[in-house]
Write a structure and sequence with these properties.
Layout: E1 2-6, H1 11-23, E2 27-31, H2 42-47, E3 55-59, E4 62-65, H3 67-75, H4 85-115, H5 119-122, H6 124-146, H7 158-167, H8 181-191
Parallel strand pairs: 1-2
Antiparallel strand pairs: 1-3, 3-4
Helix pairs in contact: 1-3, 1-7, 4-6, 4-7, 6-8
The protein binds glutathione.
Length: 210
């Protein structure tokens, strides 16, 4: 059985929980509190030298990091991971976009405004850039979703899971989504997919970090 090192309030970790739930794959979950430095201990760094979650133990002693790489691994062979050459490349295109244009802006705003006490004051200058670039990313998504139901392969894929994680949190960190009707319709579409779970959902086998 997989072991997922994850933090409940981490959007990158939520991507993996969402995919595993949707695929009906059982796993053991270990909560890692990054705010307490639990991803930077020597024990954790031995598993992921990059000191970040999510981290999936795919076989004893074999670890995979980077949320979107984990999505490709767990979804491989399912309809969530397109196999057709161009559809696969399009899914990757949107997952790279997520990491380069969405997560560093909306993800950063979410982290500092929701998880760090006094984060707004500490990051006032950076917040302006995150807001501008986050809105730009939302505009790109809006343009695509105006005439597409999903991001790749014309059906729900891991590209949607990757983009959903931080987009569905955008309203919690000052982003006003009323300007993006197609994005809001897509958020509702993803949330109504069979097997969808919310960010606070945990698998039955969840365990506290030791
Ligand atoms: N590109 C990575 C980013 C992972 C990431 O930023 N993880 C954050 C939590 S969402 C983390 O572990 N931060 C703790 C740290 O960097 O010390 C991914 O997509 O998995």
């Amino acid at each position: 059985m997989y072991t997922l090192y994850s933090m409940q309030r981490s959007g990158n970790s939520y991507k993996v929980r969402l995919a595993l739930a949707r695929l009906g794959i059982p796993y053991r979950q270990v909560e890692v509190d990054i705010l307490q430095g639990e991803s930077r201990t020597p024990e954790f760094l031995a598993k992921n030298p990059n000191g970040q979650i999510p981290l999936l133990e795919v076989a004893p002693g074999r670890y995979l990091s980077e949320s979107n790489a984990i999505l490709w691994y767990v979804a491989g062979g399912s309809t969530l991971a397109p196999e057709d050459r161009i559809e696969r490349a399009e899914a990757m295109q949107w997952m790279f976009f997520e990491q380069h244009s969405l997560e560093p802006n909306i993800g950063a705003a979410y982290f500092w405004l929701n998880l760090i006490k006094g984060g707004r004051e500490l990051q006032q200058h950076a917040l302006e850039d995150w807001t501008e670039n986050g809105y730009r990313a939302l505009s790109v998504m809006e343009m695509h979703l105006t005439d597409h139901r999903f991001f790749a392969a014309q059906h729900f894929t891991i590209a949607d899971i990757a983009l959903y994680a931080y987009t569905h949190l955008a309203h919690t960190c000052d982003f006003e989504l009323s300007r993006f009707p197609a994005v809001r319709a897509w958020l509702a579409r993803v949330a109504s997919e069979p097997g969808h779970v919310a960010m606070d959902w945990q698998p039955e086998a969840a365990e506290a970090a030791v």
